[in-house]
Amino acid sequence: MKNRILPWLLISLAMLSLAACTATSQAQSVVSPIQANELKPMLQDSSITVIDVRTPEEISEGYMEGADLFLNYNDANFEQQLAALNKSKTYVVYCRSGGRSSSAAAMMEKTGFTKVYNLQGGISGWDGKILRK
Question: What is the pTM of this model?
Answer without folding.
Answer: 0.79
